[in-house]
Amino acid sequence: MFRFISEFEHRINALQLVEIVLPIAKYIFDQNKEAAYEFLSKIEKTVNKDKIALARVHAGQIELRLNHKDASDRLVDIKKVRDMIESTQKEIESFVGVTEAHAPFYKVSAMYLKEVGDFAGYYREALRYLGVEDIGKMTPEERHVQAVLIGFAALLGENVYNFGELLAHPILKALEGSSEKWLSEVLYAFNCGDLNKFYSLEKQWSEWDDLKRKKDFLVGKIRLLAIMELALARPSKERRISFKEIATKCQVQKNEVEFLVMKALSKDLVRGAIDQVNQAVLITWVQPRVLNTSQVLSMANRIAAWSKDVIAMENIVSENAREILTKS
Questions:
Q1: CATH code of the domain made up of 2-233
Q2: Residue 317: pLDDT band with limits 50, 70, 90
Q3: pTM
Q4: Which of 45, 46, 105, 127 is most enclosed, with most CB atoms within 10 A?
């Protein structure tokens, strides 16, 4: 096979050559895994002067190894895969701008993180992949799988509290009309800290063992998002929130509010101070995140109100200055 390719490899550029040989390598892999690795090693030497083509080969090699599993469906050489990802990532980071090697690398990097059960890592890499990949080239089934996987990763990922970028991505349209349409609704509920909506969809999401087992984690997570949303929905000068209001929004007992707020503070989701005497929380800062349309409109209204306050203060200063100048 390599002899056949060597007959025309000099007639096309290195990247085109790689795109031709990778499907061939997958075919060989199905017949003989070691032969496929050897085949791509030879291609690696052929294109080693083209850094982008070389990185593309490395992503292809990683993908093959991610599909090399034992009888228990575990990766045969997980350390080898991890080392290859780390070295290829350095190549990717050395490039200026987005290249043809970026999407394939982010894809295999996400696949690896899925294999090791790192939901937050998968969410990060999958967003990168979807950010540079043309999803129009995916089949409807591929788009649906990507939407489900990244949706689950967003919910189950430790310290993932920014859903805006995912909710703005067209990949979620793949859930429309499917049995997983509820997933999109759950994501919107989390983004808004809407516990009532989350509980109303429990019949659907609890059918998935991964989510059912993590119910306590999910409830804790959406409560923290509810605190963020409660603060974000208020003008900055009105962010003194009573324990009672937080308890109602987060659906907890009043004596649980302080611990919940302390958790939000420790995760740097919000900043502020707890007033135990007056049973209130003063929030001075909310972690920046991508906003949805309604959140942007709310922000615009607050900016408009702030602008009016500035103009009013300007008029007061102007009037007072006139009096001072007149007296002098």
A1: 1.25.40
A2: confident
A3: 0.86
A4: 105
